[in-house]
């Protein structure tokens, strides 16, 4: 997977916008960051998952998904190592991160109707 692939996956989600955060791209829905790219270096992306989702992705593919160090990682922030990452697994993680950040109104409008059906079930914060 490339950085361009990661960016395309993020921007394919409903009402997602790309901004910059601390000099690297981030992806937001309703103003909330759910993914970033290029930090701490160009070989990584990051998705904000719930801790239990993070554990599932890390257990399934520890060469591609790694918890961020410190408190952010304990809260579910997960590095995606782009070189080894499978596009479909990243799509699942990206969708889970988007659903964590998206407002309930997007779900009510059916924004998830065309979602990747294989994505892990998420819960509202």
Features:
about 120 residues; alpha+beta; 6 strands; 6-stranded antiparallel β-sheet
Structure notes:
With 125 residues, this protein is of the alpha+beta class. It has one domain: Aspartate Aminotransferase, domain 1 (Alpha-Beta Complex), CATH 3.90.1150. The protein has five helices and six strands. Strands 1-2-3-4-6-5 form a six-stranded antiparallel beta sheet. α1 crosses α4. The N and C termini lie far apart (29 Å).
Instruction: Please describe the biggest sheet, giving its number of strands, its sense, and whether it closes into a barrel.
Output: 6 strands, antiparallel
Strand order of the largest sheet: 1-2-3-4-6-5
Unreliable parts? 113-125
Compute the average pLDDT: 89
Counted beta strands: 6
User: What's the CATH topology label?
Assistant: Aspartate Aminotransferase, domain 1
- C-alpha end-to-end distance: 29 Å
Overall shape: it is globular
Topology summary:
Layout: H1 3-11, E1 16-21, E2 24-29, E3 32-37, E4 44-48, H2 51-60, E5 65-67, H3 70-74, E6 77-81, H4 87-101, H5 104-108
Antiparallel strand pairs: 1-2, 2-3, 3-4, 4-6, 5-6
Helix pairs in contact: 1-4
């Amino acid at each position: 997977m490339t950085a361009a692939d990661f960016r395309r996956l993020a921007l394919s989600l409903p009402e997602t916008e790309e901004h910059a955060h601390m000099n690297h791209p981030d992806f937001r829905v309703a103003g909330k960051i759910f993914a970033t790219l290029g930090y701490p270096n160009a070989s990584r992306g990051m998705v904000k998952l719930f801790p239990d989702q993070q554990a599932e992705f890390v257990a399934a593919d520890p060469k591609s998904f790694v918890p961020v160090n410190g408190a952010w990682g304990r809260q579910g922030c997960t590095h995606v190592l782009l070189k080894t990452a499978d596009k479909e697994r990243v799509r699942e993680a990206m969708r889970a991160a988007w659903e964590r950040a998206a407002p309930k109104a997007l779900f009510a409008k059916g924004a998830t109707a065309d979602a990747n059906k294989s994505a892990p079930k998420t819960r509202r914060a």
